[in-house]
Write a structure and sequence with these properties.
- The complex is a heterodimer of chains A (113) and B (113).
- With 113 residues, chain A is mainly β.
- Chain A is 0% helix and 50% strand.
- In chain A, the strands form two sheets. In chain A, strands 2, 4, 5, 6, 9, 10 and 11 form a seven-stranded mixed sheet that branches. Chain A has a four-stranded antiparallel sheet with strand order 1-3-8-7, with no helix packed on it.
- In chain A, a hairpin with a 2-residue loop joins strand 5 (43-51) and strand 6 (54-57).
- Chain B has strands at residues 4-6, 11-14, 19-25, 32-38, 45-50, 54-58, 61-66, 71-76, 85-92, 102-103, 107-112.
- With 113 residues, chain B is mainly β.
- Chain B is globular, with a radius of gyration of 14 Å.
- Chain B is built from no helices and eleven strands.
- The chains are: A mainly beta (113), B mainly beta (113).
- The A-B interface holds A 4, 6, 31, 33, 40-43, 45, 48, 50, 56, 90, 92, 94, 98-107, 109 and B 4, 8, 32, 34, 36, 41-46, 49, 51, 88, 90, 94-96, 98-106.
C-alpha cells in the first residue's frame, strides 16, 4: 500500500546529541514537509521541500536541518542547538499541483533523557 | 488575533448525536480548507478537502465553508465511539503558497457508547 513511513516511533536524545528522524514515502509525491506538534498546540512547519535537492525553512527551523537527496526520502536532524526538542514530529507529503492536500505519516515522538 | 481559531473542547457527546466542530479565520486570502482527524499517538488523517463556499458531504461527514463570515464547520451525523479523536482544521491560500498550511489547535471529541 502507498503511504508515508516514519521511523522510529519513539526516540530518546541525550544532551548535546544530534538525532535523525526518518521519513519515506512511496506515493510519488513531489513535496514533503516536517511539522512539530506540542500538546495543546497546532502543527508548526519546520522545513519543506518541493523538489529534490531543494528545501526551505518553515516557521521554526532553528535547531533543525534536513536533506532531500531522493524524491521518496526527507530526513530531519534535530541538532543539539534545539534546546527544547521534546515533541511529536510529523512528516507529510503532497502530490503534483498547487492544490493537492497534504497527507501525514504516523509521527515520531522524541524525548530527552 | 490568531489566523485560525478553533475551540479546543473537550467535547463529549452520546453515541448517535450530531456533532458540530468549528473554526474561524481572519485571513480572507484562504481558499482551501481541510479537516483532519487525529487519533492518539497517530498522524492526522485527511477527512475533507474543499475550496468553495457551501457544503461538501462524504458519508456521515459534511464540511461547510462560509467565506463571507470566515467560518468553517465539520458536521458528524450518527456519531460513533470510533469518531473519538482530535479534529484539526487547516487552510491555505493556494497557488504557489499551497505548502503553507495554517492549522487550528484541534478539538478533542469523545463519543460515549
Amino acid at each position: 500500500d502507498g503511504g508515508i513511513t516514519q521511523s522510529p516511533k519513539y526516540l530518546f536524545r541525550k544532551e548535546g546529541q544530534n538525532v535523525t528522524l526518518s521519513c519515506e514515502q512511496n506515493l510519488n509525491h513531489d513535496a514533503m514537509y516536517w511539522y512539530r506538534q506540542d500538546p495543546g498546540q497546532g502543527l508548526r512547519l519546520i522545513y519543506y521541500s518541493q523538489i529534490v535537492n531543494d528545501f526551505q525553512k518553515g516557521d521554526i527551523a532553528e535547531g533543525y536541518s534536513v536533506s532531500r537527496e531522493k524524491k521518496e526520502s526527507f530526513p530531519l536532524t534535530v541538532t543539539s542547538a534545539q534546546k527544547n526538542p521534546t515533541a511529536f514530529y510529523l512528516c507529510a507529503s503532497s502530490g503534483e499541483g498547487w492544490n493537492q492536500p497534504q497527507h501525514f505519516g504516523d509521527g515520531t515522538r522524541l524525548s530527552i533523557l | 488575533q490568531k489566523e485560525v481559531e478553533q475551540d479546543p473542547g473537550p467535547l463529549s457527546v452520546p453515541e448517535g448525536a450530531i456533532v458540530s466542530l468549528n473554526c474561524t479565520y481572519s485571513n480572507s486570502a484562504f481558499q482551501y480548507f481541510m479537516w483532519y482527524r487525529q487519533y492518539s499517538r497517530k498522524g492526522p488523517e485527511l477527512l475533507m478537502y474543499t475550496y468553495s463556499s457551501g457544503n461538501k458531504e462524504d458519508g456521515r461527514f459534511t464540511a461547510q465553508v462560509d467565506k463571507s463570515s470566515k467560518y468553517i464547520s465539520l458536521f458528524i451525523r450518527d456519531s460513533q465511539p470510533s469518531d473519538s479523536a482530535t479534529y484539526l482544521c487547516a487552510m491555505s491560500v493556494g497557488g504557489g503558497s499551497n505548502y503553507k498550511l495554517t492549522f487550528g489547535k484541534g478539538t478533542l471529541l469523545t463519543v460515549n457508547p
